[in-house]
Amino acid sequence: MDQSIVIVGDWGGSRLRLWLRQGKSVIHRRDGPGVTALTDSPEKTFLDLVGDWREAGPDYAILCGMVGSRMGWTEAPYAPCPATTGQIAARAVRIEAAGLPVRIVPGLSCVNPLGGPDVMRGEETQILGALSLDAALRSGRHLLVLPGTHNKWAVVEDGQITTFLTAPIGETFALLKAHSTLGAGGGSLAEGSAAGFARGLTRIAEQGAGRLTHLMFETRARQLLEAMTPADAMGFLSGLLIGADVAAARDWFGPMEAVTVIGDGPLAALYVQALAATGVTASAVDGDAAVLAGLSMITRHQDASS
Amino acid sequence: MDQSIVIVGDWGGSRLRLWLRQGKSVIHRRDGPGVTALTDSPEKTFLDLVGDWREAGPDYAILCGMVGSRMGWTEAPYAPCPATTGQIAARAVRIEAAGLPVRIVPGLSCVNPLGGPDVMRGEETQILGALSLDAALRSGRHLLVLPGTHNKWAVVEDGQITTFLTAPIGETFALLKAHSTLGAGGGSLAEGSAAGFARGLTRIAEQGAGRLTHLMFETRARQLLEAMTPADAMGFLSGLLIGADVAAARDWFGPMEAVTVIGDGPLAALYVQALAATGVTASAVDGDAAVLAGLSMITRHQDASS
């Protein structure tokens, strides 16, 4: 039975999560800054955080996410789609930090379903993890969604990631909430209300995603004319953006029975609700579980081939 | 012949433009801060700017725009659509500043073509001005567009403003340009390129406005994978947003032969180009000329009825 000790991590733009694993068990977890918030070099930040974990004698560390971008530790060029776990593992970049081998998982590039170029970093590892956790996803054609700043829809076919499509839903919402006049009528940063969200979903379903920007202005007009509360307004805006994203995905993916949502927290729950509103069953996979399973899959492939 | 002296002004959120008129001639023009950038009270700001114009003996001042909102000088409640020049004139609020009568034009509210509430302040005066300047607009059904932070599409039928629809196109573009990762790959604030704009129009026409948010991410992916320049990227993003706005307007307004664009500068030119790309002839009316003509129309109605 494998009892090897490995440090695994998801180092994204806004946060770093590191785990110390022995075999299949997680012994410790530590959090650190994302690559856009570093005050030291990536190497020093990493080594400071790892600290006494070195005493456990880890064989190596493996990291996915923005750490492999130009703004990260070292660039791990995108692997093209379609991509299997083996192909992604084979393209990991190997470096070293104070004697500890470090492997950096590449991101993925593709021609997306709209015929445009697209990129991801970190989500590929979560998708591989979902395949590892759920055998049903490893055969046939499936749609997965990874809610976030740059929301990703991914298609897997017989265990390969064949294509994906990004929409900056979380980023657009955050900008409008923080800086736009749509939030006027109250300076509250309160989370959007459930009632507002449901109303936003209904409006976009009635009018179609092609009218998104025009419906967005209702967020302001309803506050001015109908005394809509700031919490309802922010829920409404969130419902419009997520509803439009889901409608567009249904449009290009075609009929679907089920979608796998990878993530956790309120945002993943909103996607489950938006999918349900269009008659699609969504099953959720925990984001941390997916990234851990994905990093295990990649290391197994690497160890088998090295 | 009317040789009365009047101070007229368009006092919006971001700027104040004041003109001293004698009959139909503009004698002087002065600029000041918008209502969101005031350091003094609206009354003091106004009187300081008017200054020596008082010596010419103006009968009164008339102002349109955000000056009539809750955040302005005094609230002039929205007039409901459909609205004629006479109905708007009748709802002007009358106040006084150091002995000078001041009239504040109300904004308009409506149920917009998507069945939602909508509002405008200032654009109603420009629309009335366009009707005054172009007799052909005073009979039949016409579509007008007023490009800006909150872009307005307005329907006029036999001289009445019957409905309108707002989309926060300029605001969304400015937020994405200033704060989002879509602008990454270069910190340039350069205006978008013409080539990028044309490419954005083509992409949204191919894919449909319902895929706007997904196409937005191409702005980033093309910079990362295809070395798209920042200027092309910002033009591309602008083409997507304006193209989606135009497509949605065509969708609800129905077949149209011509559209009147009220405004000036690069943004109005981009709308003319986007409309031409969908086979619609656009004629442009200068924004300053429209607001001056609109304020004349309103004062004539007021003076006739008072």
Automatic annotation (TrEMBL), chains A, B:
Origin: domain of life: Bacteria
Signal peptide positions on this chain: none
EC category name: transferase
InterPro entries to which the protein is assigned, alphabetical: DGOK, DGOK_C, DGOK_N
Keyword entries, A-Z: Transferase
UniProt keyword Transferase, yes or no: yes
EC code(s) of this entry: 2.7.1.58
GO molecular function terms listed in the Swiss-Prot or TrEMBL record: 2-dehydro-3-deoxygalactonokinase activity
Pfam family, one: DGOK
One example of a Gene Ontology biological process annotation: D-galactonate catabolic process
UniProt keyword Transferase, yes or no: yes
Protein name: 2-dehydro-3-deoxygalactonokinase
